[in-house]
């Protein structure tokens, strides 16, 4: 390899290192793994190619993999999520990293290919781009790849489809499906970071406001829980009866968006569906209403509809645009309808990523140990790993829980047998 890394500016390393150390102090499970596995080095002799957001939390993952004996080569999975200071700090510390903020599509694939140059034995993905590149452009690497992991829902979907057609040529562990990943990411990660984004973009007081959550899945519940904690009155809109029923029992009001739009001071869409807030809703909103999205697509809020109603538009502050409607009312759209928790804040906090990345780390260790005997296709994380991780997280924070006594275990078993 001609060069070991390509980043924006290696001079940013010192600043990046401080941020990584800050994340370390909030990621006790990863740090415990780092201490334990640096003794046994289960990843020794393994080369890991990774493609995942270059953030301070990912840096903690990378340096934990290295401490466990792996050689690591990395690229970012999204040109906009790369933190150049973090990339610099990683490069300076010896990680072979190819990532910089704002790279174009061609550069994106160039970086992925550089990470494959060193012939990985394991792949670590977020969105399955690395696995796809291996399968389509570099199939000669497959015989020496033991297995991979995949972080996201979307990536796991892609891989299951591939596996279904017999096109997936090595075992892949679906990190996303661990309860300690998606449940905590969505409820607590998205819940807090969405409000973080709203508050950074607006600086409004939440107490006493009426908050409308479009959707009451995990993200909608997370946003609603936090809104309640901040003193807002919560309204939920839903299409799914059981989700709506849960919202009522959690103490929220439930109504159609056609009605909710008249009451809301702050709206967050978290549905995964398009056209959740459209023209007729904007027309009925109160003067000063704040609208944003934390769902996966930026079409939940119909922005062309808003544009068509507006007689003027101006930027008030970063990520906060004022639309003055022809009816005289003002509506504030945050982050241009893109994910407010990423565009106006910093994604999931380190404490939440601690759990997701602990799953990634254990996935890599599992593949290094057992990958050769695992079948091609998508593998789930075990319930035992989920419970072990949750227990570790509890313990690192000084919480302890009860265990069944032998008698209680016997009772439970007999009970299940129906005696
Ligand atoms: N992932 N470390 C933007 C993040 C983009 C992003 C995205 C996270 C983390 C959801 C992963 C501007 C971090 C990431 C900071 C940031 C994600 C997309 C993390 C939240 C998911 C499409 N998806 N994530 N921290 N960008 O928070 O790795 O600030």
The number of domains is: 2
Distance between the termini: 67 Å
Low-confidence stretches: none
- Name every ligand kind in the structure: ligand 9W1
- Give the biggest sheet: 8 strands, mixed
| CATH topology term of the largest domain | Rossmann fold
Strand order of the largest sheet: 9-8-7-10-11-14-13-12
**Oligomerization state of this entry?**
single chain
- Number of E-state strands: 15
In CATH, the architecture of the largest domain is: 3-Layer(aba) Sandwich
Q: Which structural class should the secondary elements be placed in?
A: alpha/beta
Provide a count of the helices. Answer: 17
CATH superfamily of the largest domain: Adenosylhomocysteinase-like
Shape, principal axes of CA atoms: globular
The CATH class name of the largest domain reads Alpha Beta
Strand content: 15-25%
List strands and helices in order, with pairings.
Blueprint (H helix, E strand, L loop, with lengths): L12 H12 L3 H13 L6 E5 L4 H12 L3 E5 L8 H9 L3 E3 L6 H12 L5 E4 L3 H9 L9 E4 L2 H12 L6 E4 L4 H24 L7 E5 L3 H12 L3 E5 L3 H9 L3 E2 L2 H7 L2 E4 L9 H6 L4 E5 L9 H7 E8 L2 E6 L4 E5 L5 H4 L6 H21 L6 E4 L2 H14 L9 H12 L2
Parallel strand pairs: 1-2, 1-4, 2-3, 4-5, 5-6, 6-15, 7-8, 7-10, 8-9, 10-11, 11-14
Antiparallel strand pairs: 12-13, 13-14
Helix pairs in contact: 1-3, 1-4, 2-3, 2-15, 3-15, 5-6, 8-9, 8-15, 15-16
